[in-house]
Amino acid sequence: MPRVLVVEDGKFFLSILTSKLKDAGFDVAAAASRAEAERRIAEYSGDIFLALLDLNLPDAPDGEIVDAIIDHGLPVVVYTGNFSEDVRDRVLSKKVIDYVVKEDPSSLDYLVRLITGLHRNRTIKALVVDDATSARHYTRDLLRQYQFHVVEAANGAEALDVIAREGDVRLMITDYHMPVMDGFQLIKEVRKTLGRERLAVIGVSSAGSSTLSARFIKSGANDFLNKPFLREEFFCRVQMNVDVLEHLGALQSEASKDYLTGVGNRRSFFAAAAPLLAAAQRGQAPIAVGLIDVDSFKDINDRHGHDVGDVVLARLAAILAEQVRRTDVLARFGGEEFCVLAFNLSAEDARQYFERLRQTVADAVVETARGDFRVTVSIGVCTGLRETIHQMISVADTCLYAAKRAGRNRIDIAE
Length: 415
Hints:
Helices cover 48% and strands 21% of the residues. The chain has helices spanning 11-23, 34-44, 64-70, 85-92, 105-121, 133-145, 156-166, 183-190, 210-219, 231-256, 266-281, 297-304, 306-323, 347-363, 389-405, and strands at residues 3-7, 27-31, 50-54, 76-80, 98-101, 125-129, 149-153, 169-175, 200-205, 223-226, 287-294, 329-334, 337-343, 366-368, 371-373, 377-382, 411-414. The protein is α/β, with parallel strands linked by helices and 415 residues long. The two termini are 50 Å apart.
């Protein structure tokens, strides 16, 4: 678990905050003073990802704790019961991520959401696009402070190259006025291949106007900020857009996965299979489609209950997911039936491949609350290319029934 250093001398507040952070999946290293915080840092030796600091401590009454912890290279969030513009400005002039006031329970909830978001940001790659080096580096440094992995580009054309090279950019901050390719052109090009569920885009410009903002949004941006912007507003906008991106990604994942087994569903199978079939039809590589069905599954449900049947299906899915290659497509088609599209396999290689799947399942032990089970599967395989995936599945289905009639726990293949 990621560990957070919490420096707070109020026992009640520390207890509540620790409980909330643990519920959110964090370990907490607690300290009630600057000296104790130093000991915690030495104790955990680089195993702390962020520090949450009270400004007023018995041995650091005037916020000295902030500089002390920053000197250790830790990201810092400050919270305090006393708010003033002078204190706020003084704190935010340092390399502090955020400044939160202890007001009511909502401030605690905000702190937990903030820390959760910062930890998530460590897995997200952000691209900053601006021809002005100082402005680009300022935005880059802010994003790094917020724990993003950051790459840069000086214009739209460079940005397209970076996106193609990196392959996993999830957030882009782009200026409008740039040589070679401006921000509008860049966003329009990006949106040809990357939708809003794949990449969040925030436009920025010092020539801000409602017209410019509208043009950014119409070009495909998610949001717009005028330069110069407040750090707090920038961070809130960035986090809001990343939250939406993650939410859309979660919805898309839920829509494409089978709820019980976690492997793909029929919808995701056909979406992934279409380009592989097209590649096979162009002669780039052969494909094979196999339908896999659990033998005597009705007996398992009738004798041991559907809860045991669900465990069997989940374990089978896990076995198949471990065995198929990264280039293959695995999905649950419904009930006890799964489908695999194997890419770049000859007919003979496909026979060996699906025979290995069958044998691996037969050798596995499925542990359930009502005892351990061994299950077998029958597999029907189509190795001959057809015009559609549906036609190949139909051939595989015919082979599957032939395998069942021949005694189960075997494969049957047709070209």
